[in-house]
């Protein structure tokens, strides 16, 4: 079965010679395929990078009392470690559930991605800055902490 970064996919991407590749829910990719797009490979992430790398980042930010937001970044061989193109904070709304906030983060991430791509087309390059600090990778949140997040949102 072909994989996203397997030989057949690599050949297809090389043949297409894209300026930009946009990932959406893709598994980690090798450096070989990431090096093909002329301007880079982009990912929209539902957390404020570099602090909230990994998964369940909306819930982690809420649990920690930190701002919630989205980022668009260049993809490198790490997990959410590439140069950051743009971030945007999300205001939390009274009575909103975690699922509603996550959905809004996905929608806002798509909008931010569209803006980054439009700028890249206009300027012929992707503007991005290397993360100024390194933070640990967030792992899947356990049920006890997830319950705390839901309780915090219910208040």
Which helices and strands occur, and which strands form pairs?
Blueprint: H1 7-16, E1 20-23, H2 31-34, E2 40-45, E3 53-54, H3 57-64, E4 68-74, E5 84-90, H4 98-123, E6 137-138, H5 143-154
Parallel strand pairs: 1-2, 3-6
Antiparallel strand pairs: 2-4, 4-5
Q: Which class best fits the helix and strand makeup?
A: alpha/beta
The biggest beta sheet is recorded as: 4 strands, mixed
Radius of gyration: 17 Å
How many runs of DSSP E, i.e. beta strands? 6
Q: Note the run of SSEs as H and E.
A: HEHEEHEEHEH
Mean pLDDT over all positions: 94
Structural account:
With 155 residues, this protein is α/β, with parallel strands linked by helices. It is 39% helix and 18% strand. It is built from five helices and six strands. The protein has helices at residues 7-16, 31-34, 57-64, 98-123, 143-154; strands at residues 20-23, 40-45, 53-54, 68-74, 84-90, 137-138. The strands form two sheets. It has a four-stranded mixed β-sheet with strand order 1-2-4-5. Helix 3 (57-64) crosses helix 5 (143-154). The longest helix has 26 residues, at 98-123. The N and C termini lie far apart (48 Å). The model has no long low-confidence stretch (mean pLDDT 94).
Give a short summary of the structure.
The chain is an alpha/beta fold. The chain is built from 5 helices and 6 strands; from the N terminus they run αβαββαββαβα. It is elongated, with a radius of gyration of 17 Å.
């Amino acid at each position: 079965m072909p994989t996203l970064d397997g030989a057949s996919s690599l050949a297809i991407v090389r043949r297409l010679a894209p300026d930009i590749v946009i990932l959406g829910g893709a598994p980690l990719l090798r450096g070989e395929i990431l090096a093909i797009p002329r301007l880079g490979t982009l990912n929209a992430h539902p957390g404020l990078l570099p602090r909230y790398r990994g998964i369940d980042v909306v819930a982690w930010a809420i649990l920690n009392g930190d701002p919630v937001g989205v980022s668009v970044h260049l993809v490198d061989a790490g997990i959410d470690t590439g140069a950051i193109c743009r971030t945007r904070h999300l205001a939390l709304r009274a009575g909103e559930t975690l699922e509603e906030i996550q959905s809004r983060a996905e929608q806002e991430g798509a909008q931010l991605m569209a803006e980054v791509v439009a700028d890249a087309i206009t300027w012929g390059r992707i503007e991005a800055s290397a993360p100024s600090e390194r933070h640990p990778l967030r792992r899947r949140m356990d049920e006890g902490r997830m319950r705390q997040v839901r309780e915090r949102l219910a208040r």
